[in-house]
Amino acid sequence: MNKTVELDMPIFPKVRYSGWHLDEIEPSLAEVKERHYINDQAFGIEVNGQATAYQHVPDALTAQGVRVMSMLKAQALCPELLSQYVGQVIPATTDRLVAQNFHYFNTGIFVYIPDDTQVDDVLQLALNHVATQGQDMMARIVIYVGRRVKLSIFQQMHTLGEVKSKASVVIEIIAATSAQVTYANVDAFSDVTTAYINRQALVTEHATVNWENASFNDGNVITQLESHLRAEGATSHAEVIALSSKKQVQGIMTTVENSGRHSVGHIFQRGVILNRSKLVFNGIGRIIKGAKGADAQQESRVLMLSRRARGDANPLLLIDENDVTAGHAASVGQIDENQMYYLMSRGISKKIARKLVIRGFMGEVLAKMPTKFAQQLIIDEIERKLQDENETS
Amino acid sequence: MTTLKIVNLHVSVEGKEILKGLNLTVRTGEFHAIMGPNGTGKSTLSQTIMGHPAYEVTSGHIYMDDQDLAELSVDARARAGLFLAMQYPSEIQGVTNAEFMRAAINARRPEDDPINVMDFINKLDEKREFLSMSEEMAERYLNEGFSGGEKKRNEVLQMMMIEPKIAILDEIDSGLDIDALKVVSRGVNEMRSDDFGTLMITHYQRLLTYIVPDFVHVMMDGRIVKTGGAELAQKLESEGYAGLRNELGIDAHLTDEDANSYFVEG
Ligand SMILES: Nc1ncnc2c1ncn2[C@@H]1O[C@H](COP(=O)(O)OP(=O)(O)O)[C@@H](O)[C@H]1O
Ligand SMILES: [Mg+2]
């Protein structure tokens, strides 16, 4: 991987990940052809390793020029269209991991929604790491949302297979003028996947990209989530929930950069830490000179549910303009004993009360998941992680 | 019949003794009221019965029939038939009222036999309407953004859904206007049966004109100092706590409000 080694590794404050060797990746050719996570008839695609396990775009959308296809197919069928967008949001030379993904990705998803398309259904994207042979996933998702389009996306990631390996996933979203995008994701890689995930959106004039990010992986993961509010009135609400368990480390860095006037960037993060795991939230609000009237707010809260849990919530505001509003709040605390007492005083067992309080703590993001399936997936993941907790402690 | 029996109860909070030898027996079928000035330990008593971890029983016992409650966790006490309508209920975002009440009912049933969803909804609708509560409150988050009055109603709704044997109602009248007070009282009166007993805690006599108690106990300085029938509440109304204190020769400090005012509505 010589093309990339001269660049630095990305900086994740308070997370030491050099021992994960994320810059030593062997792109896998493995595939799983069976569909696992998308219902029949749903609008969307499931890509498992290099295979497309499911793909469906309603005829009416195809007729309007909507494209939803695997990255391999896009490279074969519409390379010019694709090349207009790859690397547009995250420049290839940003850092070593971005560059590595840029040069070597060999799977992923491409979505193109032309201007003014009316899309009624939630777009469902599943991208799964096939961990059967020991090589790694190197994937990129590129999404272009045309002018004035309203689109709701639900994206999931899981591991298929049991062989320890790595995943590098870079996701770029371009929201054209006045586009309104909700991007909800559940990252649920298993403990055999060590992952680097980087999602970024370019938000143009009067466009909105709202993130509903759920990090429920079981392995070690660094996740970057970033919105670039490039023009007048661009808006992004980045909402993150995360649950760490067992011995894993999840480092999440959420950034909103306001460079457009009257741009609005809010970061809201809620994390729960079980067992001996670690969870770090870094929230960065950056306001560039000239972004008059910009608004940057952030709030990060972490609950530590065991004495050996380790957690951190680090807010950072970098402001280079006077005419702005900005604020931040962060806390690391324990479960609310009064809430536990209240629930238990109605006969609810400690175990179930704890589950309800945790779910409640994440409730704001849970409620915004765009499909019932997505909500249930998160509820099930909470349940599963708490179950694991009881088995290990 | 179920009996809640409190014997020579001493309780400390943060090292300070609040209850100083309290005796009280409440049976199903009976309505009891405890009245007393602010800060005398009424909420301490109710929280101790329920098992709040901040309240330390230094001596004495609380029994439900033959069971010593000291051996039961908070949730087990509730499943044994106790209920506490709290003076300050918690708010829990992300958990709906309906989901919470269903979990409470299912906690009393075998794990593989949860309440039928339709049965649950029908029961909830019936009780909710009885308390003039709106339909949307079931899907709202537990107590979140509820007004003081809505919270009190919600406590009574939970009681009606769970159907405990003995319910302790800690100031369910505070902060209620007269209409809300009537509704809440109707809910409590509706529960009256041989299988239900209650211990109402109140600062004001007003509640007791709507829910008529069989017994009235006056609490001062961590003890019950006088017990009588419903007429005792009326006597207190006209004489005030200071009058009773002087009559009994008790050395208890009263806040100015309790000493001077005669049950003006709070
Ligand atoms: N959780 C607590 N922490 C500290 N002090 C408490 C707590 N609960 C009660 N107390 C103290 O105990 C005394 C009695 O309070 P409380 O039981 O609330 O009285 P009441 O309900 O009769 O007004 C007061 O001095 C109060 O400050
Ligand atoms: Mg009180």
From TrEMBL, chain A:
Family: Belongs to the iron-sulfur cluster assembly SufBD family.
This protein's name: FeS assembly protein SufD
Pfam families, A to Z: SUFBD_core, SufBD_N
Superkingdom field: Bacteria
SUPFAM superfamilies, per the entry: Stabilizer of iron transporter SufD (SSF101960)
Origin species: Leuconostoc carnosum (strain JB16)
GO BP terms, alphabetized: iron-sulfur cluster assembly
Domain SUF system FeS cluster assembly SufBD N-terminal: 47-125
Automatic annotation (TrEMBL), chain B:
SMART domains in the cross-refs: AAA
Single annotated GO MF: ATP binding
ABC transporter domain span: 4-246
Source species, domain of life: Bacteria
InterPro entries reported for this sequence: AAA+_ATPase (IPR003593), ABC_transporter-like_ATP-bd (IPR003439), ABC_transporter-like_CS (IPR017871), FeS-cluster_ATPase_SufC (IPR010230), P-loop_NTPase (IPR027417)
One Pfam family per UniProt: ABC_tran
Keyword Repeat included in the entry's annotation: no
Alphabetically ordered keywords of this record: ATP-binding, Nucleotide-binding
Family: Belongs to the ABC transporter superfamily. Ycf16 family.
NCBIfam families documented for this protein: sufC
Protein name stated in the entry: Fe-S cluster assembly ABC-type transport system, ATPase component
